Amino acid sequence: MPPTRVALVERVALALHRLGVAPAPFPGPFFDAYLAPMAARAITVAGTSGVFDALPDTTEGVAQRTGLSTQGAEVLLPALETLGYVRFRRGRWSLTRQARRWVGPAGAMPVFSGAFAASAWDLMSDLEAHLRGAAPAALHDRPPGDPWWASYEPAMAEIGRVNGDRVAKLIPAERPRRLLDLAGGPGLYAAAMVRRHPGLEATVVELEAAARHAETHPGVRYLEGDLFEVDPGSGYDVVTAHSILHNLSEERCVALLRRARGALRDGGTFAALETEQPEPGHPRSMIAALGSLTFHAAFGTRSKTGAELEEMLRTAGFSDVRLLRPLDLNGSVLAVGTR
After folding, report:
1. According to the 3-state scheme, what is the secondary structure of the chain?
2. 210 close to 184: Cβ distance less than 8 angstroms
3. Could you read off the pLDDT tens digit of each residue along the chain, which spans 339 residues?
4. What is the pTM of this model?
5. Domains and CATH numbers, the chain
């Protein structure tokens, strides 16, 4: 049996075991605690070292082009093959179709799976200390010149390109003319709204450090400053605040939501996309649960449950509060309210 097929059989068998319909191919903790970190690190190193960009090539060619030792390439490439990222044909390695889609030179998420994942690895190496009460890393407090921003903002742009149009489609807005996007990062969610609603003008509020890495999009302008200090004006038809509430305490969330409501016109719509903290006994998504661990280490916070999001929006004065859980945004919830 070809090696890639053997690896696929292992992964399918493990998935079936997790569903309770087949015996485990090997003990679950052996994969979760021992093999999974190796797999993650192999993919990350392949991204940061340029292996994905170097393909197609021979083992020796990859080593020469990336600065890896020959033996380093000899052990990394087969590992990537078992994970479904590369394949070996006629003496040369090349990316699989899925890998080209996500991590190749023209892929959708090369930074997220490379440099940004590497920084997340460093963050989570101190997880136990953070879980025992150590101060969070406070990543968003880093100065504008900190190299962390150079991987973080492009990674957020990659997520925005993947999810932006899906989210824009979900936001209930009829012929909006003005949009305010709080903590809008590189502006991809705002740009998606502009594409969906011709004539819409969007204002993205972001920290100076993040705004330095902002992208230029038609109909989108940037306002640099702290979310709690800058005055973006009022009378907006739609205000959004995607993936920011999990960085804040509940008190600060309500304060930000009140500012968002104050920026809306009467009848205007507020929407916030968030990962949803699972209720005990009701795990909705591994993405959301593990993401919450990251937020705890980075900011000393966690994702909010659906009930918490609803309550915070109501406390801030929003009416017609509701939650949308689209299947194609697994682990996420779109909290919507009306002024």
Report:
1. CCHHHHHHHHHHHHHHHHCCCCCCCCCHHHHHHHHHHHHHHHHHHHHHCCHHHHCCECHHHHHHHHCCCHHHHHHHHHHHHHCCCEEEECCEEEECHHHHHHCCCCCCCCCHHHHHHHHHHHHHCCHHHHHCCCCCCCHHHCCCCCCHHHHHHHHHHHHHHHHHHHHHHHCCCCCCCEEEEECCCCCHHHHHHHHHCCCCEEEEEECHHHHCCCCCCCCEEEEECCCCCCCCCCCEEEEECCCCHHHCCHHHHHHHHHHHHHHEEEEEEEEEEEEECCECCECCCHHHHHHHHHHHHHHCCCCECHHHHHHHHHHCCCEEEEEECCCCCCCEEEEEEEC
2. no
3. 455 555 666 667 666 666 666 666 667 788 788 888 999 999 999 999 999 999 999 999 999 999 999 999 999 999 999 898 999 999 999 999 999 999 998 999 999 999 999 999 999 999 999 999 999 999 999 998 899 999 999 999 999 999 999 999 999 999 999 999 999 999 999 999 999 999 999 999 999 998 888 889 999 999 999 999 999 999 999 999 999 999 999 999 999 999 999 999 999 999 999 999 988 877 668 888 899 999 999 999 999 999 999 999 999 999 999 999 988 888 899 999 999
4. 0.89
5. 3-113 (1.10.10.10), 138-338 (3.40.50.150)
Question: Position 323: which residue type?
Answer: L
Amino acid at 140: H
